[in-house]
Please model this.
Amino acid sequence: MSIDFGSALRRLKPDKQRRQIAPRPLSTLVAAADLTGPGRPALVLDTNIYILDAAGLLPATVAQLLDRALLFHCAACLAELAVGVANADPALPGWTTLRGHYARLFEGLPANRVLVPDGQTWTEAGLVAGTLARIQGFQPWQRKQCLNDAAIYLTAAKAGLPVLTGNTVNFDLIQQIAPDGRFIHF
Model:
């Protein structure tokens, strides 16, 4: 495996980004409610979708979309979920239920629908996250969160799929730096 850092620099142009960028109005972005037509959309789920779904907190339109969509799963999201399970206090009463829910989720994932970011994708995600950290004034924890979000976004973009997310601001900023991908917000 080789990583073409020069190509990533030329394509993403982090040196050209000098000013803070603003999130775009929601009305200009694709919303989950816009996907109510016939057909079975293919989507990559962001980590927050799994969490909200497990908690029963997804809006009805998003839950209905998940029921009919062909779902793909990014290994970066799955790692974030694993961190959350391992970080949860096993002494709490709901820990066994939490662990069981995510164990069943992982066991039910079709291997052909798990997308794994490669070295080039992680490198480009690093350039996107670093650029945004610099121009947006992110704190270190925001930079790490942005790195994972950029890896999810770019992995989906490489597969030609949109990401379904509730994290509209981060994904909008990422898309403004790397416009080749798509995301759907709710």
Observations:
- The beta strands are 42-45, 70-74, 114-115, 162-165, 182-185.
- The chain has a mean pLDDT of 96.
- DSSP finds eight helices and five strands in the chain.
- The CA atoms of residues 86 and 171 lie 26 Å apart.
